[in-house]
């Protein structure tokens, strides 16, 4: 069994071999993708719990594996670890982009954000909602500039309309 795929608070470094990392990353990315798909395919109306909280808690296994791997890569790197980093880094970037550019996910976040004044959210929940929404808006703004070739002024107008 791959020790990276078991739940842990403290990484079981004595059990981890370099060969465990890539399969663990691949499995964790698939699992996180399924968690995001569950959010976007939900037939329930978007709510803080089924969208923002679910998004915040998605990919925890991937976060743990990434943390262990990249800390190890910084502290005790070797050729094998560097090779794995070269292989998994593009996969992690692609996954991150898939989430950040997920239109269905953004629509759900925007729906919750548009109701924020009626949701009686705690300060922490409000902060999380604002953070998630602004993260998506900022990414959309950057992509608008890159993909459309529009002027910064035009992009600023669209950006302000989204906020």
From TrEMBL:
GO molecular function: carboxypeptidase activity; metalloendopeptidase activity
Organism: marine sediment metagenome
Name recorded for this polypeptide: Peptidase M3A/M3B catalytic domain-containing protein
GO terms of biological process kind: proteolysis
GO cellular component: cytosol
């Amino acid at each position: 069994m791959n020790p990276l795929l078991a739940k842990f608070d403290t990484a079981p470094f004595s059990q981890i071999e370099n060969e465990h990392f890539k399969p663990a990353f691949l499995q964790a990315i698939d699992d996180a993708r399924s968690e995001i798909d569950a959010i976007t395919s939900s037939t329930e109306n978007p709510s803080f719990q089924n969208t923002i909280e679910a998004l915040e808690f998605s990919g925890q296994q991937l976060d743990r594996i990434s943390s262990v791997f990249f800390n190890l890569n910084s502290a005790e790197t070797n050729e094998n670890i560097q090779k794995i980093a070269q292989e998994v880094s593009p996969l992690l970037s692609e996954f991150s982009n898939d989430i950040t550019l997920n239109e269905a996910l953004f629509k759900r976040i925007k729906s919750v954000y548009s109701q924020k004044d009626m949701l009686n959210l705690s300060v922490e929940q409000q902060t999380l909602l604002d953070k998630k929404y602004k993260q998506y808006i900022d990414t959309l703004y950057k992509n608008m500039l890159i993909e459309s070739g529009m002027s910064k002024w035009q992009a600023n107008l669209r950006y302000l309309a989204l906020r």
